[in-house]
Design a protein that fits this description.
single chain; alpha/beta; Isopropylmalate Dehydrogenase; 2 domains
C-alpha cells in the first residue's frame, strides 16, 4: 500500500503535514510519499526516510487557497495537487490525501481521474459521530451545491457502498435530510428525491430531521452539497465554540474540557473534532481521494492517511465501479 500526501497543502503545511505522515508511518503498515518541495521536505523528514516507509516526490509549485481551482490546475502542472492526483491516475499510489485548496483537488480529480461509469456527480462523504454508538456518513458534504433528484439517489448508492464495506454494516439505513419526516415534507428537490430513493432497493428509512443527527437514526445521511456543507460547518463551529474554547485563560479552557469529561460528555469532544476523522472521501471518481480540512494539524493528517488506508484496503473505488448507477431508482449492485 502506498499513499501520496500533499505536503504543501493546508494552513500548517509542511511542518504539521510531515508530522502527521511520520505518525501514520509508525501506526499503519503503509508507505507514504510526501509530495512537495524536496529541499524543505528533506530537512523536515530526512532522518526518518530510512527508518520508516517514507519517500519524497518533488513538486515545485503550490496552489494557494485563494486561487481559482480550474485556472490553478491548468497553470500549475508542477503543483503538489496535480502531481499527487497524477500519481494516483498512473497507479503509482493507492490513494491521495490533501488539506490544500479543496476546489483544486476536486477539479484535478474530476478531470484527471475521471468519473466512475454511470456516476453523474461525485460527492464528498464526511463522517459525523454525534451519537457515540452510531456514526453516520453524510453526503454530499460540499462538492455539489446544486443538485437534481437523480444526484441524491446516486449519493445514497455511493454512501451505501462506503458504509457497507468500511463500517461493516450489511444493510445501511439511508435517511434523506429534510425539514420533517413526512413524505410530503421538504422542497421540490427533497420530495422528488424521496420518491426515487424509495423506489430503489436500498434500505431507505425515509426523511430524517436535523434532530436525528444525534440519535443515530441513519447510517447514511443524504443531502445536497449546499446543505451538507452547512451541516458539517455547523458541527465544526460548535466544536470550536463550546469544546475547544480558545480562551486567553488557558486554565479555564482546560477546566471546561475536564468538566465535560467528568459529566460524561467527553465523547462530544471527539465527535465535534474534525481531526478525529481526518477528512472526507471523494466518492465516484476513479481513485481514492481524501480531502482534509485546511486547518489540519498532525493528528488530522495521520487520521486522514488512516482513512485512505482503509479505503484502499477494501478497494473502495473498485467496489463503487461495480454498482450499476442510474436515475430510475434501481440500484443494481
Amino acid at each position: 500500500m502506498r499513499i501520496a500526501v500533499d505536503a504543501s497543502g493546508g494552513e500548517f503545511a509542511p511542518n504539521e503535514i510531515v508530522k502527521g505522515a511520520i505518525k501514520a508511518a509508525h501506526e499503519y503498515d503503509v508507505e507514504i510519499a510526501l509530495v512537495g518541495k524536496k529541499s524543505l521536505l528533506h530537512l523536515l523528514a530526512g532522518k526518518h526516510l530510512k527508518k520508516l516507509n517514507l519517500s519524497i516526490i518533488g513538486a515545485s509549485q503550490n496552489i494557494d487557497f485563494h486561487e481559482h481551482p480550474m485556472e490553478a490546475i491548468r497553470k500549475k502542472l508542477r503543483s503538489s495537487i496535480v502531481i499527487g492526483i497524477n500519481l494516483l491516475k498512473e497507479g503509482k499510489v493507492d490513494a491521495f490525501v490533501s488539506a490544500g485548496n479543496t476546489g483544486a483537488v476536486l477539479c484535478a480529480a474530476f478531470f484527471s481521474l475521471g468519473k466512475i461509469n454511470g456516476v453523474e456527480r461525485p460527492a464528498l462523504a464526511s463522517i459525523i459521530s454525534l451519537n457515540r454508538y452510531s456514526p453516520a456518513l453524510l453526503l454530499d458534504a460540499g462538492a455539489n451545491a446544486d443538485c437534481r433528484p437523480s444526484h441524491l439517489l446516486q449519493f445514497a448508492q455511493l454512501g451505501n457502498v462506503y458504509v457497507k464495506y468500511t463500517f461493516g454494516v450489511e444493510s445501511p439505513r439511508i435517511g434523506l435530510l429534510s425539514n420533517g419526516t413526512e413524505d410530503t415534507k421538504g422542497n421540490r428537490l427533497i420530495q422528488e428525491s424521496h420518491q426515487l430513493i424509495k423506489n430503489s432497493d436500498l434500505n431507505f428509512i425515509g426523511n430524517i430531521e436535523g434532530t436525528d443527527l444525534t440519535k443515530g437514526t441513519a447510517d447514511v445521511i443524504v443531502t445536497d452539497g449546499f446543505t451538507g456543507n452547512i451541516v458539517i460547518k455547523t458541527v465544526e463551529g460548535l466544536g470550536d465554540s463550546f469544546i475547544k474554547v480558545r480562551s486567553p485563560d488557558h486554565t479555564r479552557s482546560l477546566r471546561g474540557r475536564a468538566l465535560m469529561a467528568d459529566v460524561g460528555l467527553g465523547f462530544l469532544v471527539k465527535s465535534m473534532d474534525y481531526s478525529e476523522f481526518g477528512g472526507a472521501c471523494l466518492l465516484g471518481v476513479k481513485g481514492n481521494v481524501i480531502v482534509s480540512h485546511g486547518r489540519s494539524r498532525a493528528k488530522a493528517i495521520k487520521n486522514a492517511i488512516g482513512l485512505a488506508n482503509r479505503a484502499s484496503e477494501v478497494n473502495l473505488s473498485q467496489l463503487i465501479s461495480e454498482v450499476k448507477f442510474n436515475s430510475e431508482g434501481k440500484n443494481g449492485q
